[in-house]
Amino acid sequence: QGNKLWGGRFVGDTDPIMEKFNASVAYDQRMWDADIRGSKAYVRALEKARLVSTDEMDQILHGMDQISEEWSKGAFVIKPGDEDIHTANERRLKELVGAPAGKLHTGRSRNDQVVTDMRLWLRDAISTLAGNALQLISTMVERAAAEIDVLVPGYTHMQRAQPIRWSHWILSHAVALSRDVERLQEIKKRVNVLALGRYAYSCKLAFDAISLNSMDATGQRDFVGILCVTVSLNYTLLSLVCCYSETCSSLMPQKKNADSLELIRSKAGRVFGRCAGFMMTLKGLPSTYNKDLQEDKEAMFDCYDTINAVLQVSTGVMSTLQINQSVMEAALSPDMLATDLAYYLVRKGMPFREAHGVSGKAVFMAESKNIPLNQLTLEDLTTLSPLFGGDVASVWDYRSSVEQYSAPGGTAKNSVTAQVEHLRVWLKKQ
Ligand code: ARG
Prior knowledge:
Layout: H1 16-22, H2 25-28, H3 32-48, H4 54-73, H5 85-97, H6 110-146, E1 151-156, E2 159-165, H7 166-191, E3 193-194, H8 199-205, E4 209-210, H9 214-219, H10 222-238, E5 247-248, E6 256-257, H11 259-282, H12 296-320, H13 325-330, H14 338-347, H15 352-369, H16 378-382, H17 398-403, H18 413-429
Parallel strand pairs: 3-4
Antiparallel strand pairs: 1-2, 5-6
Bound molecules: arginine.
Arginine binds near residues 84 and 294.
Keywords: Amino-acid biosynthesis, Arginine biosynthesis, Lyase
EC number: 4.3.2.1
Organism: Echeneis naucrates (Live sharksucker)
C-alpha cells in the first residue's frame, strides 16, 4: 500500500479485482479541470490561514497549472494506483513539486473534494444543457413562424381529431421545453453551493452560497438526484416529439426510417433507469459519506451526456426536416369537422350536449351511406334537426375551422402568432 495516498495503516496489497472495482478514475477523470480549480482555490485559502507559505503556495499553483496543461494536451498519464481524479492529480503534483504537495490536503477530505468538483462540473454542464435547450426552442419557434399557415390533423388518443396549425403543434413542445430551461436554471442555484466552507475558497470559485452543515455537505447527493429527475422530466417531453425523419433501411431500399427520432425516444428508458437506479443507491444510506456515493458520477454523467446529445439531435431534426404541406393537408377529412357541425347548431341556439348528439348521428349516417360527412345533403341533415339550413356549407372549411380558436392558447393564426411573439421575448431574456 506504500504508494497509495491513504496507505499508512494498511498492510498487504489490494486484490487487483478489488482495485479495479474500487477505482473511479476511468469516468471521474472528466472532472480534471474542476479538481484543479478546486485545489488552486484551496491552496490559496491554506496560505491565508498560514498553513502553507507563499512560496509553497506558488509551487503548488504552478504545479497545478502544469497538470492542467498535461490534461488539456491529452498528455496526462494515469498510473496504476490512481484511484480517482483526486488522487491522480495529487500524485502528479507530488512528482512535479515534491514535498509541498503533501500540504495541499491539510484540513480537507476527498469527500469534500468529490462534492466540490462535482458541483463545479455540474453548474457548467447545466449551463450547456440550458444553452442547447434554448437552441432547440428557438429553432422550433422560427420554424413555427415560417410555416404558420400549414394545417395538419391534430391527434388525440392516436386518432385524428381536429384540424390544427402545424405551427401550433411545434409550439406545444417549445412551450414545454421553456419550462425545462427554467427548471434547469432553478436547480443550478441549488448546485452552486460550496461544500467546504472557507470563505476564501468560495470567493475564488464563485459559488452562490456556502453549505451550512459539513455532514450534510458531504453526505447528501440531492443535487445529483434533482439533475436526474429534471433530465427525466425533460425527457418525458422530448420523447413526445416523434413523428417524421428519414434514414435508410440497409435491406429494403424503399424504406425511410425515423432512426433519429426512435433513438431519441428509446434513450428515455436509459435516463429513467439511471434516475431510478441512483435513487435506489441513495435510499437508506447512513449519514455522511459512504462509498456507495461513488455511484453518483456515472448517473450524473450519463444523464447529462444522453440529454445533451438528444437536445442537439432534436435541434438537427427540427432544422432539417422537410414537410410536405399538400400531403399533410390531404390527411384532413370532413369527419374532423364533426365538432364544428355541433358548434353550428350551438350558434343556432341548441345546447352543446344536444348538438354533440345530433352531430354524432350525422357521422353515423354518413358512415352508413359510405360517404364523407360533408356529402350529406341538407335533406339528410334536416331529418336530424330542423335547425340546419343552407349556410351549413360554410362548416366544411378547414381554414375557417382553425380560425375559430382565437382565444389565448388556440390554434388560430392570431393566437399562434402571439405564442411565437411571447417565446421570442422569453428567449431574449435568457
Ligand atoms: N472516488 C471516490 C468518490 O468518488 C472518492 C471518495 C473516497 N472517499 C472515501 N472516504 N473513501 O466517491
